[in-house]
Write a structure and sequence with these properties.
The chain is of the alpha/beta class. The protein has 7 helices and 8 strands. Strand 1 (3-9), helix 1 and strand 2 form a beta-alpha-beta unit. It is globular.
């Protein structure tokens, strides 16, 4: 059966409520946090991130300030990635997983992310899409083929409905050698003009279905850190 990984980027203020929604359904997610944004308007406080972690969810790194990494020199990338991880570790979070802002990635950012002690670094695409990537694999392998560029589903420009989200999972359930399907969520809010936002009603319907599929033994639901494995390394 496939493994579903639910990830949430950007540490926006709604993510504490999202974490509680998941917990009520017995699900765990991975929340990729920008430590430099914490406490600012529209973003989580440090206390809120601690509350998310206390519920059993994974806290991952997402850089200090959410830059396009390939546009920066290596030293700036190093500061954004490593200093963010160092700050999160200092706050007490067991940070093992990283996500590239905007999915912007090059060989330098891959090398630096893994050099900062991360066990995995998540992209935002690379898996099957019905409109533009029919030849792409339906699932990422376990362990990932490239831990420095973990492939994920891309829902940009697709209807962010429970039905669309379910189809990524049901397609994976038909695979002979299912791996993992990683979802990338941003804000959960009612904002139809925001292509990255998912309406709370659609999100709730999707995770209700995910929870039922998990209870029925048809899927597994795990955090990125638990799927990839490995300990918590210090920042070099």
């Amino acid at each position: 059966m496939p493994t579903v990984v639910l990830t949430f980027d950007d540490s926006t203020v709604d993510h504490l409520a999202v974490a509680k929604m998941l917990s009520r359904r017995g699900l765990k997610g991975t929340f990729y946090v920008n430590s430099g944004r914490l406490g600012k308007r529209g973003f989580l406080s440090v206390a809120a991130v601690r509350a998310i972690a206390k519920l059993g969810h994974e806290i991952g790194g997402h850089t200090l300030h959410h830059p396009h990494l390939p546009e920066a020199f290596d030293a700036a990338q190093q500061a954004e990635i490593c200093d963010d991880r160092r700050a999160l570790l200092k706050m007490g979070f067991a940070v093992r997983s990283f996500a590239y802002p905007f999915g912007a990635i090059d060989e330098s950012s891959k090398r630096i992310a893994m050099g900062c002690g991360y066990n995995s670094a998540r992209d935002i695409n690379g898996l099957y899409r019905p409109d533009s990537c029919r030849a792409c694999p339906v699932t990422e392998t376990i362990p990932p083929a490239d831990p420095a560029a973990v492939r994920a589903t891309s829902q940009s420009r697709l209807p962010r409905t429970a039905r669309t989200l379910r189809e990524f999972v049901t397609r994976a359930q038909q695979e002979k050698d299912p791996g993992m399907v990683t979802f990338v969520f941003h804000e959960i809010k009612n904002e139809p003009r925001d292509q990255y936002a998912t309406a709370p009603k659609e999100f709730a319907a999707f995770i209700d279905w995910v929870a039922k599929q998990r209870t029925a033994g048809k899927i597994d639901v795990r955090t990125m850190g638990d799927v990839v494995g490995g300990g918590v390394s210090p920042v070099p």
